Amino acid sequence: MDVNLKPAAATTGEGRAIRVLAGFAIAVLICSYAINGMDRVLFPLLLTDVRREYGFGLPEAGLLSTIFTLGMALAGLPTGYLMSRFSRKTVTQIGMLIYSIGTILTVLSAGFADMIIYRAATGIGEAMQLTALLAIFSSYFSRNRAVGVGTLNYAYAFGAIIGPMAGTSLLVHYGTWRAPMIAFGVLGFVVMVLVAVVVRPWLSEADGSTLRELRVGGVATLLNRNTVVLAVLSVLFGLGLYGYLGMYPTFLREQLHFAPTDIGRVMSSYGLGVLVSLGTGWLGDRLPARTVLSLSFLFAAGVCALLFNGPASFIAQAVSSFALGAIFSGTIFVNLAGYHVKVVTDSLAGRASGVYVTTLYGSATVAGYLIGWLVRLSDWRSAANLQLVALCVIAAAISLFVQSPPVSKPSAGQAPMPG
Hints:
The chain has helices at residues 12-45, 47-54, 58-66, 68-74, 76-83, 88-106, 112-140, 145-174, 178-198, 201-204, 225-254, 260-274, 277-286, 289-309, 314-342, 349-364, 367-377, 380-399, and strands spanning 215-216, 409-410. It is mainly alpha-helical. It folds into two domains: 18-207, Growth Hormone, Chain: A (Up-down Bundle), CATH 1.20.1250; 214-407, Growth Hormone, Chain: A. Strands 1-2 form a two-stranded antiparallel ribbon. Helix 5 crosses helix 7 (112-140), helix 6 (88-106) runs antiparallel to helix 9 and helix 17 (367-377) packs across helix 18. The protein is globular.
């Protein structure tokens, strides 16, 4: 794999040392994003204990569980402003600082009003860090961008695997939901310091523009049929994905009466499912979008039905959660993002990604509140059947309206062109 080394004429020994330093720095950056993933999955695991202490209703608790996505949806403008004035490394650290502080401040909350501010702030920090890391990895690994960016998705998966088990273990060991929140916040500070020490500007600020790929095809406006359909799918997906991620641990705790450590293991199995993303992304590049999305949403509907209506054993819930991780985050999330970009011209790629982020995380903001409200009106089974199963079936039908051509793709016979 080609990397950009600082000295143009380094000796063999110096080049080897730089590669070792670069490898260590990249490992630290990967670790930093794994902690981002850990932080995202932590609070829903603790929601029952938070509700018990503060007396929150289920809809209010659900909103607290997913409000961080509002911060993620709104973080684009401030992150772009910061990255035009500060280094990517600095923005990465600022993002980690914000979500680590927000995580720790949550334990000091006096009530709902300030807690919701702290939870939303964590989403701002997480989105800022992700945006900066995407720029770092896609530029530094300029000849292998898919591998570089795919590595970040794997880092999130590892965080989603480790975080639930570590968080619930700390909860049981210390007997308070505050312990894992403080521990994860402190861990964020530690890795933020590591980023400051080991990541060098020649790595974080590498310019991959000279290897920009020439792409052809796609439509020259965001107001096109495919983008509109994909935006609707993103809204539905946000409601389903974060309805599950935000409230499923509470269902396991309060409805199925799972022990916290068992909940941690079930949620970790979801993270394991995310590891299929490289393979499903490869398939998404080779199969029609309507086929990939419609089948994925149908499979997701079936798995969600099993989760909330099927066997309540630990094995059944863990296997179904693994399958949902592979479908939701491993397949739909990755390919929806890719299709948003592919259906427009290369010059609109950034704006198309913005549409995806805004629609997905915008609807995700209220996903937890909505399913909590539905549970209060009826029960967990009915709520899940409406928000997860029914919405996935509707999304599968809407996916059939996605038109495959034209899409933006590498120009045939063209090598990557200098920017």
